[in-house]
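Good morning,

Attaching, inline, the backbone tokens for the sequence recovery test we're adding to the shared suite. The designed sequence is right after.
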């Protein structure tokens, strides 16, 4: 039997998101989520897609990630899709931070685990949870290839002129301070899908990708390779986000410590969890912000204007970095669904060849589509992201051929 299935796991500190895909047609067999791990009110939601079955949901205590994955396996088994299936080729894991070392998907061994652990200081919220999920999965299927797909990998093609900060080189190297970038699987997938939408090969187009969700990032992609991105050492830098400030004068931190007598932990919380849209207007849901704007709420309007102003700055900057742009692609929750954001982001940029057609922009859909006027010099596109498919594709490309050979023997 040929193994063609890949299980994709995205392990958070108290959750596990998962998808099971069959790579023969890149089709989803099942999707699900376990959340509130470690609590009495843990919740598992599982949807079998291959059989067209209805979603199943239960609540109850899930004590740890081991119990969570065993629960996932049990749900999959009910549909004949269990983790112990010989049709499972590999398990692909989202790992947020891979530093400079990991530039592509990597089969996980002890050395890889040690390096992911060594990167915890630059990803303290994410890498520990990713490691927990990996180790749990390895315990359940020690015979199966486990592959790490890194959020940072797509951005490792940035030149040093874009990746380095202008601080003392020895200090930066000693503490591994540089721009790493995040949302890499999304930027990789969307940049390729945009090229396909234009009927061109990725190496023949320049694309600005705008991944706009609660977390938000921009990237400049030249010929299929990232040459700049907005997030930096951490996901805090760059665009205005749901709860993160994005670009801020570093001296704000010193000022808050000296004048505001705030601790480093308090400032960290302020910039990561109490800033961005929620800090500006008390809401981080763009739908609610737009509703308030329609009712004449000035605070919501200002938050929206600041959000758009920052977005325009990055569009202009990356236009300059690329020297010429074939397309701008909006993706993720806000990018895919908030027509007013897309319209405002390119408004007034006619001299750069950017415009949206109001009618096309108003259309909602799940497929990649152009929203720029016919014949526009620069295409403006909405391209739904698919990070799980990207992780599965990269995982299967790495281990699938070897797995097929092994199962054929």
């Amino acid at each position: 039997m040929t193994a063609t299935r890949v299980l994709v796991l995205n392990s958070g500190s108290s959750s596990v998101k998962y998808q099971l895909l069959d790579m023969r047609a890149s089709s989803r067999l099942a999707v699900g989520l376990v959340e509130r791990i470690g609590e009495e009110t843990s919740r598992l939601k599982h949807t079998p897609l291959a059989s067209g079955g209805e979603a199943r949901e239960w609540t109850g205590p899930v004590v740890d990630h081991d119990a969570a994955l065993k629960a996932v396996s049990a749900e999959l088994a009910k549909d004949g899709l269990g983790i112990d299936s010989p049709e499972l080729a590999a398990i692909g894991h989202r790992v947020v931070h891979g530093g400079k070392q990991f530039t592509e998907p990597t089969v996980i061994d002890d050395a890889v685990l040690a390096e992911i652990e060594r990167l915890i200081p630059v990803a303290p919220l994410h890498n520990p949870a990713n490691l927990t999920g990996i180790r749990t999965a390895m315990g359940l299927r020690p015979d199966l290839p486990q592959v790490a797909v890194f959020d940072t990998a797509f951005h490792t093609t940035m030149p040093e002129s874009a990746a380095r900060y202008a601080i003392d080189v020895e200090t930066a190297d000693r503490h591994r301070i540089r721009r790493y970038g995040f949302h890499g699987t999304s930027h990789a997938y969307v940049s390729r899908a945009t090229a396909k939408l234009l009927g061109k090969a990725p190496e023949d187009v320049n694309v600005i990708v705008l991944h706009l969700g609660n977390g938000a990032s921009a990237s400049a992609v030249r010929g299929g390779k990232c040459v700049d991105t907005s997030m930096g050492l951490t996901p805090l830098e760059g665009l205005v986000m749901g709860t993160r400030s994005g670009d801020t004068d570093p001296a704000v931190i010193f000022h808050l410590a000296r004048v505001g007598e705030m601790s480093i932990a308090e400032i960290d919380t302020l910039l990561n969890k109490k800033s961005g849209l929620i800090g500006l207007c008390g809401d981080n849901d763009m739908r609610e912000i737009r509703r308030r704007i329609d009712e004449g709420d000035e605070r919501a309007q200002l938050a929206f204007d600041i959000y758009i102003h920052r977005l325009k700055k990055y569009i202009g900057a990356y236009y300059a970095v690329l020297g010429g742009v074939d397309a701008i692609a909006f993706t993720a929750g806000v990018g895919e669904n908030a027509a007013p954001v897309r319209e405002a982001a390119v408004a007034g940029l006619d001299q750069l060849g950017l415009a949206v057609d109001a009618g096309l922009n108003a259309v909602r859909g799940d497929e990649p589509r152009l929203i720029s006027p016919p014949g526009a010099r620069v295409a403006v596109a909405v391209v739904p992201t698919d990070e799980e498919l990207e992780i599965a594709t990269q995982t299967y490309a790495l281990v699938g051929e070897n797995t097929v050979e092994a199962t054929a023997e």
